Amino acid sequence: MKLFYRKFGEGEPLIILHGLFGQSDNWASLARQFAGRGLAVYTLDLRNHGLSPWSDEWNYPVMARDVEEFTEELGLRNITLLGHSMGGMTAMQYAFLFPDKLSKLIVVDMAPRAYPPHHDGVMEGLLSVDLNRVKTRKEAEEQLSHTINENATRQFLLKNLYWKDDTRLAWRFNLSVIEKNIGMTGIPFDPEGRRSSIPAWFIRGDHSDYVLDSDVERIEELFPLAKLITIPGAGHWIHADKPALFLDTVMDICK
Fold first, then answer.
1. What are the E-state strand segments in 137-185?
2. CB-based burial label for 72 (10 Å; 0-12, 13-18, 19+)
3. 210 phi, psi to nearest 5 deg
4. Are residues 79 and 99 in the same domain?
5. Are 32 and 86 part of one and the same domain?
6. Phi, psi at residue 54, to the nearest 5°?
7. pLDDT digit of tens for each residue in the chain (255 aa)?
8. 173 φ, ψ to 5°?
9. Catalytic residue among 52, 85, 196, 208
10. Which domain holds residue 23?
11. How many CB atoms lie within 10 A of CB 101?
12. Does 72 share its domain with 127?
């Protein structure tokens, strides 16, 4: 599948993979700053998200292969691959399937383990929005507010609304396929007993419970060269909570 992407700057390649319900544009501000420090930054829309094509097939192996198709098309090598949340799981999958392409792996607030379902409120909110009747973003936000209390989460989701035509709003993500396969986002890739020799950095927020101290043993088992970095004052969206510190941390890795 040919993925939509945005490119910023010139230099060594840094590919960024967004999380669930995200899109490449979410990373534009940081991407410009990375580019300003001498990197060629590629922010991708994973399948069923953003401006990339939709498909009924949606899992980590197929998303990793999409990324590989992208790197082959552009002839990229010695890549630093950065993934957040769902993108982090996809990045780990890529590291096991296509290790020869990578020089470094950066996984943002995700561990190589199964996660229990935890998107029920978000899915309920999204499914409650009747796009056949909603005529403004404000109306959509009002419907989301019945099940999604956090304003930041609502605004994040609403960035995916666009005018499909003059009279109808639509989501950028493929809600029906995501609903059907939402359990996939909590299932880790299967490394089949292998270990990765890729230098890897796992960045977690100290206010997040996605990467626990109990996950460190499993991380080191699969990625023996892994280093764990904890960002103070950050939750799951580390890059949004502490953008300056996150920028410096990633640039230190990319040196």
1. 161-163, 169-171
2. exposed
3. -75, -35
4. yes
5. yes
6. -100, 155
7. 999 999 999 999 999 999 999 999 999 999 999 999 999 999 999 999 999 999 999 999 999 999 999 999 999 999 999 999 999 999 999 999 999 999 999 999 999 999 987 777 899 999 999 998 998 999 999 999 999 999 999 999 999 999 998 889 999 999 999 999 998 888 988 887 889 999 999 999 999 999 999 999 999 999 999 999 999 999 999 999 999 999 999 999 998
8. -90, 160
9. 85
10. 5-113+188-254
11. 20
12. no
Please tell me the total count of domains within the chain.
2
Residues 55, 11 share a domain: yes
- Residue (of 110, 47, 40, 109) closest to 80 by Cα position: 40
Do 131 and 68 lie in a common domain?
no
Burial level of 230, CB count in 10 A (0-12/13-18/19+)? middle
Q: Is 85 a catalytic residue?
A: yes
Tokens 């490119």 correspond to 7
